[in-house]
Structure formats: C-alpha cells, structure tokens
Amino acid sequence: MNAAATQFGLRASVAAIVGVAVSGCDGVQSALSFDGSDAARITVLTIVMVVAATAIFLLVMTVLAFALWGSASARKRLASPSVVFAGGVVFPCVVLSALLGYGFAVMRTSTHGEPGALELSVVGEQWWWRVQYPDGRGGTFETANELVVPVGRPVRIALTTADVLHSFWVPAYAGKLDMVPGRTNYLTLTASSPGLVRGQCAEYCGGAHALMSLFVRALPPAEFATWREREAADAERAETGRQRRGATLFAGAGCGGCHTIRGTAANGLIGPDLTHLGSRHSLAAATLPNNAAAIARWIAHNETIKPGNLMPEYRVFSDADLHALADYLFALK
Ligand code: CUA
Q: Which of 120, 223, 286, 308 would staple 207 via disulfide (CB 3.0–4.6 Å)?
C-alpha cells in the first residue's frame, strides 16, 4: 500500500470512530440529550467533574515537568516541606472535599419528593417492568414495560424488585437508581417537553439483562389525563370474528393463569398485564416493535427472542389460530 492510501485509510478510520462516538451522544437513550431538570442537574455535575479533573491533571503534569526538567532553583523550591504539604495534603483535601460536597448536594436535591407529584410504582422482574398507576379515583391499575408521564409535573417513582437487583435508568430524565430486594427506593423525574425516550435496566440481572428496556412517553397534561382514563378502563370487547376466535383461544390455552386482561376472566399476576397491550410502543420490554406479527412471533418463539424468560413457547397453535390470537391481543388498545 502506498503512503497516500495509508493516510486515506487512517483518516477514514478516525472519521468512522469519531462518527460512531458522536452518534452515541444523541437519540432516545442518551445521557447527553437530556429533557428534564433532574437530568440537567446531572449533566452540569458531569461537566463540573470533567473540567475539574482535567484542570487538576494539567496542574499535576505541569508541576511534574518542573520537577523533572526545571532549573535547579525551581526543583529546590518544589522540594521544600511547605510546598509538599500544601500540594500533597492541603490541596487534595480542600478540592476533593469541595467536589464531594457539591456531588452530595446534587444527589440530595434529585431524589427528594416534590409536592403535587404523580406517585407511580415500578417493579423490576426478570426481564420486564411491572408498572402501577393511581387511577385518579383512589384506586390503582397495572400496566407494563412503558411509562406515560405528564409534561411539567414531577413523577415520583417507588422502585422495588420481585427477584434480583435491577436498576431503573431513563437517562433523558434522571440518573440511575437500583431496585434492591427488600427495599423501596424513590426517584423523581420531570419531563419538560412531550416526546418518547428509552430507558434501560442498568444492573446486570441475569441472561436477558440487555433485553430489559422500556419506553417513556411524555404527554401534555390533558392528553395524559385522557390516556390514564382509557388505560384504567377494562379491555374493549373483541370486535371481529377473528378477534373473538383469538379471545376464545386465549382463555382455552390458559393464558389467563399468568396474564390479566381486565374485564375478562384472565386475572393472572405472574406476567405483564395485557389489558391495553396494543396501545404500547413496544413489546417484550422494548425488545420488539408492537404489531400483530411480532405478538405472534413472541407467543411461538419467545425463548429465541428473550432466552430464559418465564413464559413457555406456545407452538401448539395452527398458523391461523396463532394469528387470530395475536390479532385479538393487538386490538386491545
Ligand atoms: Cu434488570 Cu438488568
């Protein structure tokens, strides 16, 4: 290879690396494209820490350069006990204590409850999220794998786990917080504009940990109220003949032993609530897009999609039956 070709290859590699690195800074799941005041505070904290660390590093390297290559008098001054004490004890104690204090102050303000907050609870399970909402009339209802939040109103989320350690992380809105067995942790976030962002379980929780994600939709308050009203209601009845066939198959195959569809006999609590499955943005904790074909795939081949999950693969259905069942579930809006 000649020199020009080598240089071109080098430039192309650098451009590719920079491109990949920068593209990671944007999008639905980036800590650097924040949308809420809690995430904004963490971004400022990150900038302060990086700038401070860089300044300290440059200072230490400058002193080191003087110590190695400076004039005899400069080296003698650097070696005096008072300079060693000031640079080696006083400086790190003062600077690191100040940065630590600042970090604690940010952490305190970001996890405090706020008046008028919407109170939700999210339970981490291998490998999906159980979500409980107040229905606005004193009761609660359950959904899964997706949060819908009102813009401009703080949302206080009680985080627990049904099995192992998980960590709830929606980088656009807030820092990550662990879901610890036997304990409830509280996280407050506020979305400042409507939109759709993605979150991820941030603590290794078993084989399919990487497939434990979720979407968060922020809606203007009036749209949120409409969504909550509909979501709290029972499932609509199957309309078409095919959907009715699907409903019969759902009941007959015992799906209701693990899943709830409110308004029907299905009241299982082991798996995600499916009452309004069709209204969600994704399936299987943001692993698949939400459509009838993906639901059919999940029912018959879920162990290939998310190995080790608790649901058995149902390959007993004929193609026509499988699609009737998927149609029924996707029609649950
Ligand atoms: Cu749940 Cu990782």
A: 308
What pTM was computed for the model? Answer: 0.81
Per-residue pLDDT band for 28 (boundaries 50, 70, 90) equals confident
Ligand 1 binding pocket (C-beta < 6 A) is 124, 127, 166, 201, 203-205, 209, 212
Instruction: Quickly state the pLDDT bin for 109 (edges 50, 70, 90).
Output: low
The full DSSP string for 15-84 is HHHHHHHHHTTSSTT-TTS--SHHHHHHHHHHHHHHHHHHHHHHHHHHHHHHHHHS-HHHHHHHTSHHHH
Residues 6 or more apart in contact with residue 21 via CB below 8 angstroms? none
Burial 195-223 (b: 16+ CB within 10 A, else e): eebbbbbbbebeebbebbbbbbbbbeeee
Q: How many A from CA of 124 to the centre of ligand 1?
A: 7
Output the pLDDT for position 95: 93
Res 36 pLDDT > 80: no
Structure tokens at 174: 């807030």
Region 254-271: mean pLDDT is 96
